[in-house]
Design a protein that fits this description.
- This protein has about 550 residues and is mainly α.
- It folds into two domains: about 450 residues, no CATH class; about 90 residues, no CATH class.
- It is built from 19 helices and no strands.
Amino acid sequence: MSETRNQNYLHGAAILTVSVIIIKILGAIYKIPMGNILGDEGFTHFNVAYNLYNLLLTLSTAGLPVAVSKMVSEANTLGRPMQVRRIFRVALGAFAVLGTAGTLVMLLYPTELAVFMEDVEAAQSIKAMAPSVLIVCIMSAFRGFTQGHSDMRPTSVSQVIEVAVKVAFGLALAWYLSKLGKSLPILSAAAISGVSVGSLAACLYICIKTMRGMKRTRRALPNPDVPERSGIILKRLIKIGVPIALGSSVLSVITLVNTKLVLGRLQSAAGLSSTDALVLFGVYSKALTLYNLPAAFITPLTVSVVPAIAANMAKKSYVEAREVAESSLRISSIIALPMGVGLSVLCAPIMNVLYPGSASQGPLLLSIMGIASFFVCVSLITTSILQASGFERLPMITMVAGGVMNLILNWFLVGNPKINIVGAPVGTLCCYVFMSVLNLVFIKTCLPKKPRLNRAFLLPAFNCAVMGFAAWLVYPAFLGLLGAGPQPDRFTTMVAMLGTIAVAALVYLILTIATRAITLDDMKLIPKGERIAKLLRIR
């Protein structure tokens, strides 16, 4: 990879990584106290609405932002600025139409959707989220455009604004209404309305920022090119975006169907009451919140990978494309694997500290989901590599196969009274293991230059195994030093947990440097990474 292109890719990923750290801190401020305000049952209403929103948003946007980013990156590489502008205008119109359709569905049929999901009290939350579909659709067109220019700053800043406003508005409103004694459906709708308000604020920012930038560059266009007709561009957007959208929609559909299936099977087959089923699913939803954490840190890589690989593939620079793919796989493992192992090993103290008073199944659910979170990350990054390399349909095959497997496993496992809710994370784990393996097989067989996978996974896996064992030994030792009894209080548990995390992180860092699992190029993904690498003597 040329040094300039490499730096653009790494810099973009670094910017997004910083924003993700800020976003996750703000997200924790939002979801953890929100889970405690709403309780297990209220949190189910929240997640039912959120899953419906994700499905409609995926149907409206998934695939097109990636297609826009890829097409803009290719046009820039070939020196076609007018083509870039027309791609954006066509994409913006398409997004607006799709977003309007999704918003109308949620506004006009909230009760019907809630009944379908086996949670009639989620109707108000569904209505509160409806405007977000249109808003995020419009925002996605702008994000795809700026990402295609390898400029990740507008996306990063808009994401921080979105989450900050969501936290401030949603949490404050839910807390205030809880003090007034409002019902759980009302509290859930109040909490989720923060998503709509946050989306609007972020959309306004990125629209103003991008339009100002386009206005400045319009005056300095050298030798304007002749762009393709809008119809041709739209057809190409559809050709690239639809397979990606269908693949992504499969997972959103599966998630939605799983929500309905799990709630239904807990009642019809496992013999639980409606209230008990809602409580158990609420605990599962809380575990899902933590399980999604590693994937959030990998998303910046998936966003940066697409334009970087697409630009190299357009110029037939296959070796450089391979280097980007290898770097992204290695970083994914180095980041996601220790986070997944940590969630699994420290599942009990994490759940007890963050969600005290939840049902007792929480730690077991989180322990399984922790391992699954790593395979989610592998699935995400391998999907982006395949999409950027021109194999958009292959991830769709993977997602369909994995999703069907998940549904079948959940049907039998959750419906077993002895397993019930534990079957849900087991099905998720099996689904993503299968998807990850299948995507890796496609990468090894289809790409012109095959990424070397051994170093991406073997060394981080060994280092994480040692780290996990160290954490398993250290946590009870910390409890002993603090004089904790058989059932330590929340504060003691938190202190022991944080001490264990610090020790485990140090062990992992030492092992990562000692085994040379990380390279200098990898360190450049981290802000000031080159200085840190020099200090740690990483070459």
